[in-house]
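Re: weekly structure request thread

Next one in the queue (303 aa):
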Amino acid sequence: MREAVAAFVHDGDTVSLEGFTHLIPTAAGHEIIRQGRRDLTVVRMTADIVVDQMLAAGCVSRLVSSFVGNSSAGSLGELRRRIERADPEPLAFEEYSHYGMVCRYLAGAQRLPFYPLRSYGGSDLPSVNPALRKVLSPYPGPDGEAEEIYVVPPVNPDVTVIHAQRADRRGNTQIWGLTGVQAEAVFAASRAIVVVEELVDDDVVRADPNRTAVPAHAVDAVVVAPRGAHPSFAQGYYDRDNAFYRAWPEISGDPARLREWLAEWVYGTADHAEYAAKLGEEFWAGLAVGEALSGPVDYGRRL
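Done, posted below.
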């Protein structure tokens, strides 16, 4: 992780951190904090705890998102201070809907100039985001008349970081459960880091090719960081740490306590392996999950 972040994440970059509900790239966010990156534009559909932590560490000057919050467990204290009171400094915030962000990634991945969508009709988001614009459709609308339709601009991050369950050494990356927009975010970016729970042999990937969400040619670095999505979960590997989510509003609500947390758990650990070890095996046993195996399929082979 240290080598990947040093090589591919630079001051001033636009950095996409994607993972929806599970597979949140927390370990990568912590390493960005350790390396003291500054003036980042962070693009993340669901800006949550890891974004709050990066804000408190001084890494982020601009946020592009469609949701901000502590995943049904409360507020993000640092983010609220930055937006509501410019404390300790203002945060530039560019807001979209979830589908608007999906469309931005789709446009970025396909190198399109914009992406059309109907869902901003009747919304007040265009009043707070001048990047939401209308164009005249070259085709008639449902009523046969000329139609103006909202469009969003592409997003092309300098680097995208995703977390996934497994990959091979070349970077063929497999995801199951909620897949989010990880693939689109990787294809939209100039560089991509994939963080995985485990590295597997080529034969494992070849035996289940439909789970390969991101192919090797789109990946610049593969990092093995078991339990690297904590406090979120990795489907099939460990459960969500709900107690941490519930504790975070109180931690982040107090700037001094938040910085103490960063000092102990991020700056005070050399890497994610040390962070995970510090939590202890008894803790991880409490997040263990049982088997829920997918049924086998027969791809067939040439006789």
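The radius of gyration is 20 Å. The longest helix spans residues 98-110.
Next request, please.
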